[in-house]
Amino acid sequence: MGGRGASEVARMVVAVVGVVVAAAAVLSPAAAGGLGREAAALVAIKAALQDPGQVLRDWDPKSGDPCRWNMVTCHGGHVQELSMVQQNLSGTLSPAIGRLRSLRSLSLRQNAISGPIPKTIGRMKLLHVLDLSNNQFSGSIPSTLGSMVNLRYLKLNNNSLSGPVPDSLATARMIFILDISFNNLSDDSRVMDKKIMILTVCIALGCSMVAMVAGAVILFRHWRQRQRVFSVAEVQHCREVSLGHLKHYKFKEIRKATDNFNIRNILGEGGYGIVYKGHFPGGTPIAVKRLKDHDSVIGDDQFHTEVEVISLAVHRNLLHLIGFCTANNERILVYPYMPNGTVASKLKEYVNGEPALDWPRRKRIALGASRGLLYLHEQCDPKIIHRDIKASNILLDDYLEAIVADFGLAKLVDHGMSHVVTTVRGTVGRIPPEYFLSGHASEKTDVFCFGLLLIELVTGRETLELHQNEYQKGGILEWAKELLAQNQLSSFADKKLRNNYDSVELEEMVQIALLCTMYSPKHRPRISEVVTMLEEGDGVAEKWEAMKNVEEPNPEDLKYQAIAINYYEDQCSSTELQAVELSGPR
Questions:
Q1: Does pLDDT of 385 surpass 90?
Q2: Least enclosed by CB within 10 Å: which of 52, 80, 222, 364?
């Protein structure tokens, strides 16, 4: 038997053994007492995969609550999201995936997983995001995918799938974004039927000829009973969008939940709107964002489209949108309430005489926020630029995990504005220079702001302004750079920490912050590089040494820093808020 054949046999043996072990665990008294069906399913999924990087090492019954396992997100005591993007996974996807009946998002993008797509996925009736793109899946597309009434986002592109496109997909009721390009799918004559009304979707067939445009156009089947299937390119132009997986609340429901938007229920206010705490019947707490510019030119259809794109961004470190309301020119978004507030407010708190956020928690917050940004920048399609990363826009869940809020909302406020900036009074250099001068935002704009978030975590300051006589040669970034060079970062660290931090880790975090806030966007790292630096730490000092003298901005370019930035003067500063701010969103 050849090496490849032996490897395949070994892989199958491992998968079978894993499933048997998982099944035995489910039947055992210990499992009945604590593991649960969903945990057993996760163990079976792990057993069928090959994980050389050990990213699934804590997927073990002995590790306790599966909701704390890596890349697993739960809500209400059930697994609702698996996000295992670009984790160097191979092997196969176990049919046990179908036992996760509460799953809403499954993303395995950019791995090397092979074998068939399990038909059991069709049992997950609540699933609305399925991304298996850029893997090595083979076989046919399961027809069961077309019967998933809540499936909104389906990406199977860049695999080795074959056979015809199932009729059930061509007439799927709810699919909003569909990409099955770069496979080996056949042009079934039923799909190619041109005698009914049809919807054209570009499906690239992976043509290897260099001189040709990759792919060919397959005409997808008609839509029946006023049902639509949208291509990615059509998302921005659709006129009728059904938001089946989001709750469309009536205005009277929102008004009742917030006690008629009682001022005593205000949690915070920022550039995008006012946030109120509310309660639905039964006592469920919520956070209600009432967007500003009620008379905006954005129509209901355009608002629905933007909300749909936001709602498809599902990650454990992103705030999850659960509903919306459009009535009487109102634009309202509904989110789960985060009782631990924001990082900005928590940095000021003490618990039993100790800071509420110790150094390890601050490191974990930095890593969680960076992973959320990574998802927005490199794993969302279309990608989302946040535009306003800061401590008051990072919420904390029950476990003090970072939850990035306020993403994707710039388009919902006023399309006539080139950019939206929430109030940070008197803060010099808070806005990236290229964004301030041109209004142009990019991924590197977010990276710059993330660097300032790291400064906030290190210093614990309410604002980034320096105190009188603290440093005379520039702003807080220049001061950090000088203290770093002089090995005096203890003067920079939050006094509340009382030197209870790892000095090497402190130095690395400041170095990462300075790399992120380089004047030129091209010199800043990508957020994926930032995540790696925060996870591993190795090489951070070397990167800083290589970049610290690479540029000195022209004094003419720094004129903007002489202006005391003071947008929206009628609003309170976001850094002064005492409770949850969702100034702008898992």
A1: no
A2: 52
Contacts of 517 (CB under 8 A, 6+ apart): 448, 451, 452, 477, 524
Final residue before a domain boundary, out of 188, 204, 237: 237
Three-state SS annotation for 383-412: CCCCCCCCHHHEEECCCCCEEECCCCCHHH
Tens-digit pLDDT profile for residues 504-530 = 999 999 999 999 999 999 999 999 999
Final residue of a structural domain among 336, 363, 383: 336
How far apart, in whole angstroms, are the C-alpha atoms of residue 112 and residue 195?
40
User: Distance between CA atoms of 432 and 441, rounded to whole angstroms?
Assistant: 9
Strands 285-291 and 273-279: antiparallel
DSSP state of 379: I
Better-scored residue on pLDDT, 440 or 100 = 100
DSSP-derived letter for residue 556 is G
Burial letters 434-469, b for 16+ CB under 10 A, else e: bbbeeeebebbbbbbbbbbbbbbbbbbbbbbbbeee
Which pLDDT score is estimated for 563? 37
* Dihedral angle over CA of 177, 182, 186, 188, nearest 10: 20
Tokens of 442: 């990019």
- Residues 137 and 159 sit within 8 Å (Cβ to Cβ): yes
291 lies in the same domain as 202: no
- Segment 330-363, tens digit of pLDDT: 889 999 999 899 999 999 999 999 999 999 999 9
Q: In degrees rounded to 5, what are phi and psi of residue 83?
A: -120, 100
Q: What is the DSSP letter of 237?
A: G
Full domain range(s) for residue 360: 354-576
Q: How far is CA 275 from CA 261, 262, 296, 389, in A?
A: 9, 11, 19, 17
Quick one: 424 and 319 in the same domain?
no
Report the candidate in 386, 506, 361 with the shortest Cα–Cα distance to residue 445. Answer: 386
Q: Which two tokens stand for residue 30?
A: 């210990």
Of 432, 434, 437, residue with least CA distance to 451: 432
Query: Active site includes 388?
Result: yes
- Token pair belonging to 537: 């730490």
Catalytic residue among 388, 406, 446, 494: 388
Q: Is 70 helix (H, G, I), strand (E, B) or coil?
A: coil
Q: Is residue 373 domain-shared with residue 278, that is, in the same domain?
A: no
Strand order from edge to edge, sheet including 114-115? 114-115, 136-139, 160-163, 184-185
190 and 309 share one domain: no
Beta carbons within 8 Å of 365's beta carbon, 6+ residues apart:
343, 357, 394, 396, 400, 401, 402, 457
C-beta separation of 90 from 50 below 8 A: yes
Q: Which two tokens stand for residue 401?
A: 């995990």
In a domain? residue 25: no
* Burial group, residue 233, by CB count within 10 angstroms (0-12, 13-18, 19+): exposed
Decide: pTM greater than 0.70: no
| 392 and 270 belong to one structural domain | no
